Amino acid sequence: MAWLEAHDRFYPDRFPAPVVGIASTLGDHDSGLHRHQRGQLLYTRQGCTRITLAQQLCLLPPSRAAWIPGGVTHRAVMQQSVDYRSIYLTPELCRELPQQVCVIEVSPLLRAVLEPMAIADFGTDWQQGKFVHLLGLCLSEIREAAQQPMLLPLPRDKRLAPLLATPEQLPPELQVLEQQIGASSRTIGRIFQRETGMSYQQWRQQWRLMRAMELLATGRNLGYCAFELGFASDSAFIAFFKSMTGSTPGTWLR
After folding, report:
1. 68-93 exposure pattern, b = at least 16 Cβ within 10 A, e = fewer
2. Total number of domains constituting the chain
3. Cβ proximity of 139 and 133 under 8 Å
4. What is the tens place of the pLDDT at every residue in 12-52?
5. How confident is the model over 93-109, as pLDDT tens digits?
6. For residue 39, how many C-alpha atoms fall within 13 Å in the half-sphere facing its CB?
7. Domain containing 225: what range?
8. Could you give the CA distance from residue 142 to residue 97 in angstroms, rounded to a whole number?
9. CATH of the domain at 39
10. 163 and 122 in one domain?
């Protein structure tokens, strides 16, 4: 395994082993756009990671893992302190795994399996002993894991580029967006429905939910979250969060 520091560059495709694992705790780290032929399972043990794809924004809060198939260009941004584990699997091992990027719930079994896999020596023989069983359990857990709605589709229309340039900022109300890009609400609605499958309001609400989870996972309090996300009060923010997830922010964090 490799314990990565913030300045290290890691190239999983240069290793011959079928499984390569890394472990790290990074703060305010930006991987930059990159891709590799191996499939990657990125598990956030503590903190929150934002993954940017070509036409999607992916949020990875604690206890969740992102499955990134081989060949997918992506960028991982880690805020504050993020403790994570990653394993990289050869294309042969990925044939029965999801073919699209997804965020999965990490079961206690998958969590227990990932730790010894992530810290295993690069020269490990994955075809015998306990390691063949660990690998089999890992592949099975990835296949059967419940997927989480942590992916936000991004519109491709060039008029909306300023909206996507600052993903940390609350998207404006529809009337304000009309003035900013010089398009009617009907035109904006058609763009979002065609390119994201959502209305603009639905898309904005999903953005708010993902940003709320990101803020909560990085230690922001309710008052800060409510203000940043444009809610008039803490109680309004709590009601929104519960309507979207079925639980309060405090319950979700626990």
Report:
1. bbbebebebbbbeebebbbbbbbeeb
2. 2
3. no
4. 899 999 999 998 887 777 788 889 999 999 998 888 888 88
5. 999 999 999 999 899 99
6. 22
7. 155-253
8. 7
9. 2.60.120.280
10. no
